[in-house]
């Protein structure tokens, strides 16, 4: 049986059937495991591996495992620093020492919170160098190790990957490497100004990500942002992101001038996704207002499920620490929560579109419904609207 047709020029550019791209979400490969990436590509979209936090050889393994499941186009997403500087920053241990010396109140808060919830310390052992450089939207939120990122990029260039995506940061130095290998480069933007910067450095496709999105997000909502970015970077194709979880959202994005969509939260609720059961439960049972933007976990604005940790931080009235201190402070709490399967206390990013999700499903079914729902929404507009 032939699959329904839903194509834009983006499909030809990427070699895919439908203009639907899996957001390359991070979380050390759990959010976008090979089974999910391959399922999206096999269903006609573009699956994207979230490579953030994966050591280079682990990233290579993720790509190769995905390749065992699909021969269709795939992408890889990384978080890049604003500048890949040769000078070393601070190691994780050095940041921890500085935290105790400079920010004892915040350290005491986290230790007391862990004790209150019975969490045993399980500190992260890696010593990735932490850079304090700023990205094009105000800085990258995580640990950025020059050698690690260069090695991650090298892996992507060596493997069978068709698309490179920069989830945060400046992709300018990656563009010529990707171009030499025939790869398309995707950059994310939360404003028209940042979208223009992405275009100027040679990015092929720009994601206009609205405030409704999960994870690190900007301040402008999707409806005003998408047409602003479309107008600013034309004729560069734009993917819409933020709050899009069904076909109605896809149709709206296309009406606003996007050539496709970049979808994360809807696929977190897939059977193939490897995030915790608690995280999935929050998405399925949560309301849109349960997913709030805070700076507690990384020092940068990030939308996640509002939990007891966020409530306690808000109640304490503590100031958010500068990059990278806030993230390193909370990394160890997250690690302790994960080690004891207390994902109710863990950082669980997701977007406001979760309010429209009521069950877990295979990724192929999610893709089918996105396509069918888009066609139904587009056709339904013709039935409901009189023009002339």
Provide a descriptive summary of the structure in words.
The strands form two sheets. An eight-stranded parallel β-sheet has the order 1-9-8-6-5-4-3-2. A three-stranded antiparallel β-sheet has the order 7-11-10. It has helices at 9-14, 34-42, 56-67, 92-102, 104-116, 146-158, 175-180, 192-200, 222-233, 247-255, 265-268, 277-285, 308-316, 325-339, 363-384, and strands at 20-22, 47-50, 74-79, 163-168, 184-189, 205-209, 215-216, 238-241, 260-263, 291-294, 302-305. It has a domain at 9-86 and 129-284 and 354-379: TIM Barrel (Alpha-Beta Barrel). The longest helix has 22 residues, at 363-384. Helix 8 (192-200) links the parallel strand 5 (184-189) and strand 6. Mean pLDDT is 92; it is low at 83-88 and 131-144. The protein has 388 residues and is an alpha/beta fold. The protein is 41% helix and 12% strand. It contains 15 helices and eleven strands.
Helix % is 40-55%
Structural class: alpha/beta
Number of strands: 11
List low-pLDDT spans.
83-88, 131-144
What is the CATH homology-level superfamily of the domain at 9-86 and 129-284 and 354-379?
A: Aldolase class I
**Gross geometry:** globular
CATH topology of the domain at 9-86 and 129-284 and 354-379: TIM Barrel
Largest sheet: 8 strands, parallel
End-to-end separation in angstroms reads 37 Å
The CATH architecture category of the domain at 9-86 and 129-284 and 354-379 equals Alpha-Beta Barrel
Radius of gyration, in angstroms, nearest whole number: 20 Å
> What CATH first level of the domain at 9-86 and 129-284 and 354-379 would be assigned?
Alpha Beta
How do the helices and strands follow one another from N- to C-terminus?
HEHEHEHHHEHEHEEHEHEHHEEHHH
Would you tell me the overall average pLDDT? 92
């Amino acid at each position: 049986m032939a699959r329904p047709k839903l194509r834009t020029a983006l499909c030809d550019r990427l070699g895919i059937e439908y203009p639907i791209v899996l957001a390359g979400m991070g979380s050390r490969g759990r959010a976008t495991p090979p089974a999910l990436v391959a399922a999206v590509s096999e269903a006609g979209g573009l699956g994207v591996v979230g490579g953030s936090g994966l050591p280079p050889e682990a990233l290579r393994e993720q790509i190769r495992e995905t390749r065992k499941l699909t021969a269709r186009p795939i992408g890889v997403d990384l978080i890049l620093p604003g500048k890949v500087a040769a000078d070393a920053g601070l190691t994780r241990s050095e940041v921890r020492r500085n935290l105790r010396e400079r920010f004892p109140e915040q350290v005491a808060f986290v230790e007391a919170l862990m004790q209150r919830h019975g969490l045993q310390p399980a500190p992260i052992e890696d010593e990735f160098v932490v850079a304090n450089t700023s990205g094009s939207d105000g800085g990258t939120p995580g640990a950025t190790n020059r050698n690690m990122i260069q090695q991650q990029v090298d892996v992507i260039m060596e493997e069978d990957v068709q698309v490179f995506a920069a989830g945060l940061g400046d992709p300018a130095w990656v563009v010529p490497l990707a171009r030499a290998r025939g790869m398309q480069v995707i950059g994310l933007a939360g404003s028209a100004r940042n979208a223009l910067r992405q275009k100027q450095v040679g990015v092929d496709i720009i994601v206009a990500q609205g405030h409704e999105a999960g994870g690190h997000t900007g301040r402008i909502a999707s409806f005003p942002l998408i047409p602003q970015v479309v107008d600013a970077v034309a004729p560069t194709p734009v993917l819409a992101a933020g709050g899009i979880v069904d076909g109605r959202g896809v149709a709206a994005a296309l009406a606003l001038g996007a050539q496709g969509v970049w979808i994360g939260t809807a696929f977190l609720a897939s059977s193939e996704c490897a995030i915790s059961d608690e995280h999935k439960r929050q998405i399925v049972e949560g309301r849109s207002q349960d997913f709030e933007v805070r700076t507690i976990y990384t020092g940068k604005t990030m939308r996640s499920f509002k939990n007891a940790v966020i409530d306690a931080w808000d109640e304490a009235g503590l100031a958010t620490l500068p990059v990278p201190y806030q993230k390193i402070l909370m990394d160890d709490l997250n690690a302790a929560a994960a080690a004891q399967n207390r994902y109710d206390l863990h950082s669980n990013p997701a977007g406001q579109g979760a309010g429209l999700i009521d069950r877990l499903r295979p990724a192929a079914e999610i893709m089918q419904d996105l396509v069918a729902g888009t066609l139904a929404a587009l056709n339904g507009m013709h039935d409901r609207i009189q023009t002339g």
